[in-house]
Amino acid sequence: MRIPQRIPSTIFAVVLLAAVACTPAGKREYLSVAAMPPGTSWYVFGATLSKLLEERLPGNVNVEVIARGGGIGNPILVERGQASVAISQAATAVWAYTGTGSIYRGRECPNIRALAGGLNSVWMTALLTEDYIARTGNDTLEKALTSRRPARLVMKPAGSVVPVVADMLIETLGTSRHDIISRGGDIIQVATNQIPTLLRDGRADLYIESSIRGHPTVTEVTTTVRMRFVDLPQAVLDQLKGPGVKDTPMPQWFKGQPGPTKAVDMGTVLIVHKDMPDDLAYLITRIVCEEKDEMVSAHKAWADFNPAVGGALDNTGIPLHPGAERFYREKGWL
Fold first, then answer.
1. What is the mean pLDDT of residues 295-316?
2. What beta strand segments (E) does the chain contain?
3. What are the tens digits of pLDDT across the range 147-158?
4. Tens of pLDDT along 201-248?
5. pTM score over 0.90
6. Contacts of 278 by beta carbon, 8 Å cutoff, 6+ apart
7. For residue 58, what are the contacts with CB-CB under 8 A and spacing of at least 6?
8. Residue 66 contacts by C-beta under 8 Å, 6 or more apart in sequence?
9. Which of 186, 250, 259, 289 sits between 20 and 30 A of 119, alpha carbons compared?
């Protein structure tokens, strides 16, 4: 039996009140953590959180990682009760909660709530090939998308937050996918593992990605192709920033970065349904905040998480679950 949002009250008596388990013998209960496919930092986070939860829940409770979804889909999984907990970008959590943009129009998620925000930074970045810059003289993102010789843009397929942000970026610069293609450019959406080959073979000029420190695809691209990170225009930064989304430069981490790059930090937040029992939301929040060292040992992307501000709206983007709010207030952090 799978119950993604509600755990029987008997289980909470065991977990949180130290009572004796009284669920029927042999009955299995399941919690699910929506992350991303194996190999991603989100999958590692989800697997680590699942392990910590299983250590603290009764033996008849299994916690599984949903190894699909992502920034766009995970809020919808929580809203529909198809995941108990999910990792989301703060930006997409806000868009889902408010029904903003075409991706969530008619698919609003008003019932999602935050447990902890600011888990790690995820910067939306743009890179041009040095070959394209030398060939056209287009050395900024504006020129690459609006000139008479537009770039061939490569990025992830639908389902990722990248195409959504790319469309917002393109629109903010006063153009469109159709217009770029009509001027000789292209929009190429492929699986992540195909992107380096397209750039190496000269079949793409511009790469837009959601980057973290040590991002494997960005690292491969920048070490095998002569690339240059370009700043996001201020108009784009102004359009994207808001609760949970910060206008923060990405530090100089990759080859092809002459210095910090103007970018937007889309943030990362852990979300649940508003109907999750308060005690379970409290427990998960406590684990995430008090077991930070174990999270960091699993993946260095979580090193910058500061539990003391994990409940701040600037980091969550959406309202806290009451169970999480109780935890932060008890700690004196709200």
1. 90
2. 29-34, 61-66, 85-88, 112-117, 123-129, 152-155, 186-189, 206-211, 227-230, 264-265, 269-273
3. 999 999 999 998
4. 999 999 999 998 888 899 999 999 999 999 999 999 998 888 778 899
5. no
6. 321, 322, 323, 326
7. 11, 14, 15, 21, 23
8. 32, 33, 34, 35, 46, 77, 83
9. 259
Q: 3-state DSSP call for residue 39?
A: coil
Q: Exposed e or buried b for every residue in 38-71, given b needs 16+ CB within 10 A? A: eebbbbbbbbbbbebbeeebbeebebbbbbebbb
Residue 4 has which token pair? 């993604």
Measuring CA to CA, which residue among 249, 250, 240, 247 is closest to residue 212? 250
User: 11-15, 42-46, 307-311 — which is least confidently predicted?
Assistant: 11-15
Number of H helices, E strands in the chain: 15, 11
- Poorest-pLDDT segment among 49-53, 116-120, 298-302: 298-302
Of 264, 254, 199, 201, the closest CA to residue 229 belongs to 254
The answer to whether the CB of 171 falls within 8 A of the CB of 163 is no
Q: Which residue has the tokens 């009509």?
A: 182
pLDDT in tens, 232-243: 999 999 988 887
Q: Cα 154–158–183 angle (5° rounding)?
A: 40
Residue 205's identity, in one-letter code, is D
Question: What is the DSSP-derived secondary structure letter of residue 25?
Answer: T
